[in-house]
Design brief:
- The protein is of the alpha+beta class.
- A five-stranded mixed beta sheet has the order 2-3-1-5-4, covered by helices on one side.
- The longest helix is centred in the middle third of the chain and has 14 residues.
Length: about 70
């Protein structure tokens, strides 16, 4: 399954929130430095969708706040 997400890095909390347009808003505490935010995004989405972290992969937008993520097994 592929989903569109909008990321808010350096947030005060970590959350995944579905949006009315079918995308998701992902808030992570990690800064967008050296892939730290991308790692936190994968962890948050894996927890939300109840899959392993290795099943979550960023397909597009690794350096952007709008990303396309592939989730295996969903």
């Amino acid at each position: 399954m592929r989903i569109n997400i909008k990321v808010h890095a350096r947030s005060k909390r970590e959350s995944v929130t579905p949006q009315p347009d079918g995308s998701y808003k992902v808030e992570v505490k990690a800064p967008p430095v050296e892939g730290a935010a991308n790692e936190a995004i994968c962890e948050a989405l894996a927890t939300y969708f109840k899959v392993h972290k290795r099943d979550v992969q960023i397909v597009l937008g690794s350096t952007n706040n709008k990303k396309v993520v592939e989730i295996q097994g969903k």
